[in-house]
Amino acid sequence: MAHEIGQVRNIGIVGQGGSGKTSLADAILFAAGVTTRLGSVDEGTSAFDFEPEETRRKLSLNTAFHHAPWKKHELTLVDTPGYINFLTDGLNCMRACTVAVLVLEPHAGGVKVEAERVWSRAEQLALPVVAFVTKMDRENADFDGALKDLGEVLRAKPVPVQLPIGSAETFTGLVDLLAMKALVAQPNGQVKEEAIPAALADAAKAARERLMEAAAETDDALVEQYLESGELTNEQLAQALRIAVRDARFVPVLCGAGGKGLGLAPLLDFLVEYTPPPGERGQAGGEDPKTGEPIERDVTPSAPFSAVVIKNVVDPFSGKLSIFQVVSGEVSADSTVLNVTKDGKERLGHLLRLEGKKQAQVDKLTTGEIAAVAKLKDTEAGDTLADEKAPIRYPGLVPMSAAISFAIEPKTKGEEDKVVQGLHKLIEEDPTLKMQRDAQTKEIILSGVGQLHIEVAVEKLKRKFGVEVELKAPKVPYKETIKGTAKAQGRLKKQTGGRGQFGDAWLEVSPLPRGTGFEFVDGIVGGVVPRQFIPAVEKGVREALHEGILAHYEVVDIRVKLYDGSFHTVDSSEMAFKIAASMGFKTAVQQAKPILLEPIMAMDIAVPDENMGDVIGDLNSRRGKVLGVDPKVGSQVIRALVPMAEVLRYSPDLRSMTSGRGAFTMEFDHYEELPAHLVDKVVKEAEERRAAQR
Ligand SMILES: Nc1nc2c(ncn2[C@@H]2O[C@H](COP(=O)(O)OP(=O)(O)OP(=O)(O)O)[C@@H](O)[C@H]2O)c(=O)[nH]1
Ligand SMILES: [Mg+2]
What we know:
Strand content: 25-35%
Helix content: 25-40%
Shape: elongated
Radius of gyration: 32 Å
Strand order of the largest sheet: 2-3-1-4-5-11-6
Bound molecules: guanosine-5'-triphosphate, magnesium ion
């Protein structure tokens, strides 16, 4: 049976790496009676961190989902990874959430770039954010420090709805500023309602006033009443708070110790009571798949069905699971729907509610619900599914450029195909991984967000698809070109024995602008080279382009003109002209000031203010050019162009310069001449590599 839309809450648990998200999620499952034993990240028994790569590292690598009932509501917990390497998956899943619970550690100066990313994603989605300051049982726990970070680093407007009672070992419970009572943990694990401790009375009163003032601001009449009487009724406060949360006017702040099971029931009560069910935040924006015009869809069960696929999970045995959220309408098992993005039909078999690593069948889903289906043919993460009579296309995935690349080689020779097939499957699960085959170096290049990301992919490749690979720094795809113009003759004459071979071509080579590639000009007049042999000349040149004369790299940005030649009526052939052309080309290039070109990457590097000097200095030592610096909240984004050869292993270096807070993206921009003092080194390496291959 489908649930009522008003009962649905999808709770995105977000925040930076290690802040305590998964521990909170496990504790919620336990508190809701879903599990009979409290799952633990540290002990490898979490219901959310269940993949072997996760339990081994004791951190989340994938977003995981679990259903939990709470006071007649149907919660789907969406536990997202916090470390930067795996963050994008969570950012993508946030779109299916009705609220984001931002998990913060209780001290100032703790907010890292990951929390900033999550926060700006919530802003982009206009998603209500509720902050949960966890680990209040920790030494030096400082609730006000976390509030300060929220305000100063994230530029959010934090408004506490609870205050902690005590901190660290004296943390025993919290003051609920809505009910104005204390909730105190009892030795038997229960929570008891008590009067607010005298020591906290003034602080609680002041905090409640602040809460009322902030809530009243949702409505002019309420502000007036509040200013005149200094009070709102509990009902007015609750109603105003619901609106403020729905419209993300401020961030209500709660506290507890998720990992210790403290503060869970009050958090869940707040989520079901004050955060909106699907549909209360207005229509869903998409576009007409035919015209590309923007269209809106009512987020209600009576509207036509539409859904967005947020994630794929690939199991080598049971195949692919596509996880989606119903954006509008309802859907039953065994329906046929349109994949609007791919413009093809898909048959949904069983509908599966997600329970950590397991699934449970349901017959029907209503608006807002998150579920999975198995074995869709062509559906990728980011695709829209819809009723074919009312198609709409929603925005796709959050873009994330890969920042680090490795060449990967199978440990067992001949398993290249198995590697490529396995990687294709991994990429279906994780579109932030990219694979390409370098046309020049022939290497399989795997790119990802960071080194850890790639290492995890390699582990999965082994576990799921049984191939072991080695990681190597990728070879830089240098290219060759010329700076001058030169003419040369290529002549092949073999006239001993039977039929001879004769070809003779005069070629002129000249440079073309960067990025133009290759141009062949036929400048023959008077048939000195007969028509039928001219394509053979071009072919000979094209083949010779693959192997430059300096270091055997591809030759680019060059014009080759065939301007003279001669032939022999009997001995000339296509083959002879092809060989002659290739000989002529090589000689001409040699005389035309050949140079090496190196790839230059465009980088965006987000750096905390205090590390700017170090990072820029380091870029200079890597022959980088800083193009500009864009200020951001608490950090800056450096835009720079840097030779690829200098940033093959940038990730760990940036991490150590910025204590893990820096982040970057990088993509190929253009080719530039390799400085003369580096040419010998590259040539020598190329020779060594060739010698090793022989
Ligand atoms: N003392 C204390 N420790 C906690 C609490 N919650 C979590 N921890 C510990 O903090 C560490 C990280 O917890 P996780 O729940 O894995 O954090 P996470 O935010 O899910 O981490 P990622 O998913 O990797 O980003 C673990 O060692 C937990 O035991 C808490 O309330 N109190
Ligand atoms: Mg986690």
